[in-house]
Amino acid sequence: MGSASLEERVKELEQVCRSRGLPLTIQRRAVFETILERDDHPSADQILEQIKERVPDISRTTVYRILDTFVQLGLITKICHPRSVARFEPRIQQHHHLICMHCEQIIDLEEDRLNGIAYPDVRRHDFQITDYHIHFRGICSGCRSRAGGAELPD
Ligand SMILES: [Zn+2]
Ligand SMILES: [Zn+2]
């Protein structure tokens, strides 16, 4: 999850909440700390499951809403890819992903040369690009070995 320590990231959360006038509730703190502890790009439901150990009465709606708030505040990243539920991660700096099309595992990929790609000219779409990251799709090693090296069906 990058170089900032858990403590530093929680401080960042406190600052952002204060500057936006958002109360730093137990629920918000718990969601943030839970996502910081994981590097496997969990879904909202996976975060909910883990958080219930600490905050048993938290609702699904609350977790979803808090995650969306954090994404809007730039505190976490939301990853969407076709045919799959949204996933979340604490890393906000640009990086890329290897996505297994079989088990949906997401692996972080750092490669400097992928970070400086010139944006395409999209003026005719009247679209404003703000950033990008690249998904490389394929089959992870675990799924390949389970399949005995054969190509997996879709
Ligand atoms: Zn896999
Ligand atoms: Zn990632």
Describe, in plain words, how this protein is organized in 3D.
It contains 5 helices and 5 strands. It is 34% helix and 12% strand. It has helices at residues 6-20, 26-36, 44-51, 60-72, 141-146, and strands at residues 77-79, 87-89, 96-100, 106-109, 135-138. The chain has 2 domains: 6-79, Arc Repressor Mutant, subunit A, CATH 1.10.10.10; 94-146, Dna Ligase, domain 1. The strands form 2 sheets. A 3-stranded mixed beta sheet has the order 4-3-5, with no helix packed on it. Strands 1-2 form a two-stranded antiparallel ribbon. Helix 1 packs antiparallel against helix 2, helix 2 (26-36) packs across helix 4 and helix 3 packs across helix 4. The protein is globular, with a radius of gyration of 18 Å. Strand 1 (77-79) and strand 2 form a beta hairpin. With 154 residues, it is α+β, with helices and mostly antiparallel strands. The two termini are 31 Å apart. The structure holds zinc ion (ZN) (2 copies).
Brief descriptors of the model:
154 residues, alpha+beta, Arc Repressor Mutant, subunit A, Dna Ligase, domain 1, 2 domains, three-stranded mixed β-sheet, 12% strand, binds zinc ion
